[in-house]
Amino acid sequence: MIGNGRISATGGNGFAGGGGGRVSIHVFSRHDDTQIFVHGGSSLGCPENSGAAGTYYDAVPRILVVSNHNRSTTTDTLLLDFPKQPLWTNVYIENHAKALVPLFWSRVQIYGALRMSVKMHLMLNSKMLIDGGVDSLVATSLLEASNLVVLKGSSVIHSNANLGVHGQGYLNLSGPGNLIEAQRLILSLFFNVNVGPGSVLQGPLDNGSFNDMTPRLYCELPDCPGELLHPPEDCNVNSTLPFTLQICRVEDIILEGIIRGSVVHFHWVRTVVVQSSGAISASGLGCTGGVGKGRIFENGLGGGGGHGGKGGDGYYNGNFIDGGDAYGDADLPCELGSGSGNDSLAGATTGGGIIVMGSIEHSLSSLYLDGSLRADGESIGDAGKQGSGSIGPGGGSGGTVLLFVHSLTLGDSSIISTVGGHGSPNGGGGGGGGRVHFHWSDIPVGDAYLPIASVKGTVYIVGGFGRGHGRAGENGTVTGKACPKGLHGIFCEECPVGTYKNVSGSDRALCHDCPLNELPHRARYLTVRGGVTESPCPYKCISDRFHMPHCYTALEELIYTFGGPWLFGLILLGILILLALVLSVARMKYVGGDELPALVPAQPVSRIDHSFPFLESLNEVLETNRTEESQSHVHRMYFMGQNTFKEPWHLPHSPPEQVEDIVYEDAFNRFVDEINGLAAYQWWEGSVYSLLSLLAYPLAWSWLQRCRKKKLQQLREFVRSGYDHSCLRSCRSRALYEGLKVAATSDLMLAYVDFFLGGDEKRSDLPPRLHQRFPMSLVFGGDGSYMAPFCLQSDNILTCLMSQSIPPTIWYRLVAGLNAQLRLVRRGHLKISFGHVISWLETHANPTLSTYGVRVDLAWFQPTASGYCHFGLLACAIENESAQPSIGSQDISLLPEQQSCLHRIHRENPLDHLRDCEHSVTCRRNFGGILHAKSLRMLKQKKAICYPFSFIVYNTKPVGHQDLVGLFISVLLLGDFSLVLLTLLQMYSISLLDFLLVLFVLPLGVLFPFPAGISALFSHGPRRSAGLARVYALWNITSLINVVVAFICGILHYTTHSSKKHLNFQSLNFSVDESEWWMLPCGLVLCKIIQARLIDCHVANQEIQDFSLYSSDPDEFWQS
C-alpha cells in the first residue's frame, strides 16, 4: 500500500453528533502516508459532548487505536471483548477518547471479574473503575502487565472489591494524584515499584460501604493469624488472608508517596527505600473495639484503648473508668491496635493498624527510611470525629510495626511511630502506645560482625494524652530480637568497651563490667568486633611502648622478671659488687707490678742509673754530655701563648738582652717570623676542634693534644734540621746546626728555645753563672685546668743550673713539693688557690732556700694581646752570711741593679724591699709582676662556659688505699653502665625520639665513660694511668649533658601524661612513667658525681705517692 490519501469513518454532525465508525487495515507492506479519521461528529446542542470515538485496527502489528481527534466527549466507546488468540500488542486511547470496559464482560469465562493481561499498561490522566458489586464470586479482579505499568497525570485504578496487579517489570506512579486503591490490594511480581510524590497505594477504601467485600479484621482474636508471620509462598489475591495491602515478590520499592492500609505487608521484598516525602501508614485503621478496647460510662465517655501499654483512664463526674488492658507479645507483636470500644457511638476512635515488612522465612535485605512508618491510634478530632455533649470516648491505642529485616538505615528525618490517640476533651483517656519490633535475620557475630542498623531518626511509642481529667495512656514497647553473645540493645550493637556478654538477650544489663583486677593500670579495653563474649576482656596497652600482657615498659619487664624493684635492686647490687671484685683482682694482677704501694714514699732517683752495670760507661757519657750542655747554656726564651687554635705559640721579635751578644738581630727576627708562621694552625684544624667541642669535648681535647704534639714535632724538626741557624754569631753553631733547641713541657702548653754557645765565641763572661742570671724566670707548664694543672718541669739544664747554688736533693724536693701544691690550683679559683701556694713558698721553700742565698716568688709573665699570661717562679739571689758556697765554689757576679736590690733586701725587711725593686727589675726583664696577698685581689680571671664543672672535677690530695679506691671505682663504673643501659631502656620505652636524643646529645657521650674507665683502670704505669683517668673523668662529666637531656625528656613526658589517670594502680609499683620517672636519671647523676670524686682520688694516688709532700710541718717535709 503506497501513496497519500484519507480514510475516514467519522460520525456526522448534528444536534447530537454521531459516533465514529470502524476502520481495519490488513496490509503487510505499507509505504503510504494515509490519514485515518474515526472520530465522532460535532454536537450542536451540546458542543462539549461530541460523538464517541470510533476504532482503527491495524491487523499486522495488532494495534487498536481509539481516537477522537481532540473532540471533547463524555460518551464512552464500548470495548466488549479482547481476543485471546492472537493477543493485541497495544491499545491506544487518545485525543479525548473514552473507553468503557464493563465488569460483566463475559460472565461465562471470567464471571464478570476483570482479567486484563497486557504487555504495557500506560495511563495518563485516566481512570479505571472496577465495580465488583456484592457478589463474592466476582470480587477479585486482576491486572497483569508483563512489561510496564505507568500511571501519570492523576490517573486512578479503583476497585470496590479485591484487586491484584501483577507484572514482571516496572510499576510507576509517577506524580501527584495517581492512585491505586481497593478493599484488598495485592501488588506482586514486579521488578521495581516506584510510588512518586503525591501518589497513593491504598487498601481498604476510605469511607467504603460495609459489605461482604470489606476486609474482616481479626480484632477479637486472642492470637494473631499465622499468615502474618508465615505468609504463603504464592502472591495470589486471597480474601481469607488478613492482609488489606500486600506487596509481594518485588525486588525494589522506592516510595516517595503514600502506602496506606489496615494490615500492610511486604513479602519477599528485597529493598525498601522510603524517601523523606514518603510514608507507610496504618494510623487509625485498626480496630474500633479489640482485645484492649477501652471501658465506657453509660453516657459514652470512656478510657483509651490499650495495646503495648494500658489505655488511660477516663474521667466523669468524679469517677474514673479503666482504659483498655495491654495485650500481645512485645518480643514478636502482630496485633492490631484497639479502639475506644463502641463503634455505635458517634466519634468512636480506632486503634492503629499493623505494618509488617518481611517474614520469619524471608526478611527484607535492607530498609532505608527517611520518611515515616506510622501505626498511630486515632484521636478525637481526627478525620472529623468529634464527641458530642457528654460523650467523649478515649483515644485509640497504637498499632504494630513489625520489621523482619537484615539491615536498617533510619535517616535524620525518619519516624517510626505507634503512639496512642488522644482522649476527648470531656475527660477521655489517652490510648496506650503500640508496639515496634525489629526482628533481625542472620545477625553476624564475631569477626564477621557488621552494624545491622544505622539509627539517626526517632521511634515514638508514647501513650496518648488524656484530656480534661482523663489520664494519659501508658507507653508502648520497642523491642528487638534477642541478640547473640557480645551484642545488646534493640539494634544489636556491640556491648560498650569494658563490658562483656556471654548470654543471648537484648537487655543492656546483660553486658557485665569486666573485672578491673584483670586490667593492667596502663591498659585500656579493646573495641572488639562483634563484642566481647567472655571474661577476661581483651585489652591493649595505652601505647606501643608498653608490652603485653602486663603493659610494662621494656625496663619494667626486666625489673619484674627478677621479682620486682626491691629484689631486682638487690640482685643488681650483688652482681655489681661481685663483678667489681673480679675486676679489681684482675686489675691488681695486671698492673700490680707497675705501681708502687701508695703508703711507701717515693725514693729519690739517682741521676745515673746503676741498674745496668754493662752500660755504666754509657751512662757516664750521657751524664757528662748533660753537664757540658748545661755549661754551654746561655738563656731560655719562652714562647708566648698556650698553644691553642686561638692563641698559638709565638716568640717576641726583639731578642732578649741575654742573647744579644750571640745572635744577629735581623736574622733573629727572620727566625722568629719563620717559627711563628710554623707554630700557627690551619683554619680547618680549629674548625674540627670547634665542631668536636660541640659534639664531644673529650674528643676535642684529644684532637687538640694531637695537634699540639704534631706542632711541637714540626718546630723541633725545623730547628734541628730545617733551619740554617743563620741568626747565631758562632760559625761552629751555624756549621753544625747547633746552638738552638726547642722543647716543651709534657702538657704541650709551654715551649721554649734554649740558646747554647758554639765554643768559638772566646768570651770569658759567657755562659753566665747562676747568680748572674738572677732574677731568673721559671715558668709553669699547664693552665690550672683539670686536664692540665700547673707544674714546674725541671729538666737537666735547669737542674744543673740550680745545682750551682742549691743541692740537687733540695731542688728535687722543692720541685716535687711545689708541683704537689700546684696540682691543687684550680682555674677560676686562682685567688684562693694561689694564696695557698704563696703561703707554702713562705713557710716551706724560702726558709730553706735562703740558706743557699736564693729566694723564689710566685709571679706572672709575658702577657699576650688577648690577656693570657704564664705563671711561674721568679728566682732571686739574696745575701746571707750563713749561705753556703755554691757547688763549684765559683764567684757570683750580679748586675748592679740586682746587687743593690739584694743589698736592700738583706739589710731591711726582705719582702718590702723586694717589692720596691720589683718594678725596676721586672720591667726591664718584661716580667708581669710578683703575686702576693694584695696583688692577688687585683688578679682578673676569665670564667669559661665549663666553669660550673670545676666544682665537680678538680685535683685533690691523695687519700691512699689505692686498692679500695679502685674497688669503689669498679663498682661505680659497672653501676654507671648499668644505670645508663636502664635509662636508655626507659627512654626507649617513652619514645624512640627520646632514646635517640639521650643517645646522641652529645653523640654516644653516655656510653663512652665505661670503656674510658676500663682503659684507665687497666693501664700500666702511674703516669699513664693518671692521664687516662683524667680522660675518663672528662667523659664522665661530659655524659652529664646526656643525663640532663634525659631529665628534660622525662619532664616533658611527665607533664604531657600526668593528667591521664588510670583506673588501677599497683602498690609499690616501679613506674617510670608516673611519679618515679626521675629515679634513674637522679641515680645516674649521683653515681657520676661520686665517680668524679673517686677518679680525682685515684688520679691523686697515682700522681702523688709521697704523702709527706702535703705535710704542713716544714721540718717533716724536708726530712722526708
Tag the structure with descriptive keywords.
1120 residues, alpha/beta, 14-stranded parallel β-sheet, nine-stranded parallel β-sheet, 21 helices, 20% strand, elongated, transmembrane, membrane, DUF8003 domain-containing protein, transmembrane helix
Description:
This protein has 1120 residues and is an alpha/beta fold. Among the domains are: 1-100, no CATH class; 582-591 and 958-1110; 632-767, no CATH class; 768-943, no CATH class. The chain has 21 helices and 46 strands. The strands form eleven sheets. Strands 9, 11, 13, 14, 16, 17, 19, 21, 25, 26, 28, 30, 31 and 33 form a 14-stranded parallel beta sheet that branches. Strands 10-12-15-18-20-22-27-29-32 form a nine-stranded parallel beta sheet, with no helix packed on it. Helix 13 (896-907) runs antiparallel to helix 14, helix 17 (992-1000) runs antiparallel to helix 19 (1022-1057) and helix 19 (1022-1057) packs antiparallel against helix 20. InterPro entries: DUF8003.
